[in-house]
Design goal:
The chain has 4 helices and 12 strands; from the N terminus they run ααββββααββββββββ. The chain is of the alpha+beta class and 229 residues long. The protein has a single domain, classed as Creatine Amidinohydrolase (Alpha-Beta Complex), CATH 3.90.230.10. Helix 1 packs across helix 2. The structure holds manganese (II) ion.
Length: 229
């Protein structure tokens, strides 16, 4: 669970290059592209940035398709007024990074904005907790409290994140009923989400490194991402 300084350097590079690809995707994709077309564009951008996409796990899910947390990209064309969830894993020199953003395509409704705002609040609750938390369970509970207080926890998954290393899913698991003591050198994802059947899905995922005095965010993509054209 605790990475060496050499491994941390590779994980940092992996997250950096994957972040660049996600930012470039935001600039280059446009409303009307299909989910599969967006996934293909993403995979090409990742390779251009020197990271190898784990294509089997890529999610590009638009509108109500995004209410399935494990959706596969389809030929469905994206429309204005939708949230489009883009989630991918990639490897740099064998070390994984994992990022999700929920893009606003055009102007979105108040309902969608509300769902997004709860996920964003949950993300911030987890990150704030991470500054001083002693265990993974504290962080999991901090993010979930936002959903419980809003009466929305039934739309959330039972997991907040997972370790990153040579594998994209490894210990520690930030999961209901599990706890590990946080220690410098741990690298894992923070990825709160809500999945509302028939309406939308929203997820935000970043990669963090536990340090002596809190944490370092390894990924670098704006939390609010809009596609206007
Ligand atoms: Mn993940």
């Amino acid at each position: 669970m605790i990475k060496s300084s050499e491994e941390i350097a590779l994980l940092r590079e992996s997250a950096r290059h994957s972040s660049a690809a996600m930012r470039q995707l935001q600039e280059q994709m446009y409303i009307g592209m299909s989910e599969i077309e967006i996934a293909d564009m993403l995979h090409a951008l990742l390779r251009k940035n020197g990271v190898e996409p784990m294509t089997w796990g890529t999610i590009v899910a638009s509108g109500e398709n995004a209410s399935d947390p494990h959706a596969k990209p389809t030929g469905r064309k994206t429309c204005p007024g939708e949230i489009v969830v883009v989630d991918f894993g990639a490897q740099f020199d064998g070390y994984a990074s994992d990022i999700t953003r929920s893009f606003f395509f055009g102007e979105i409704s108040e309902n969608l904005q509300t769902v997004f705002n709860y996920v964003l609040a949950s993300y911030h609750a987890a990150m704030n907790c991470l500054k001083t938390a002693r265990t993974t369970e504290e962080v999991e509970l901090a993010h979930r409290k936002v959903f419980i207080d809003a009466g929305l926890d039934l739309f959330a998954l039972r997991s907040l994140g997972h370790g990153l290393g040579k594998e994209i899913h490894e210990a520690p698991r930030l999961r209901v009923g599990e706890t590990d003591t946080l220690a410098p050198g741990m690298v894992f994802t923070i990825e709160p989400g809500l999945y509302i059947p028939g309406l939308c899905g929203v997820r935000i995922e970043d990669d963090v490194l536990i340090t002596d005095d809190g944490f370092e965010l390894l990924t670098d993509v704006p939390l609010i991402c809009k596609v206007e054209h």
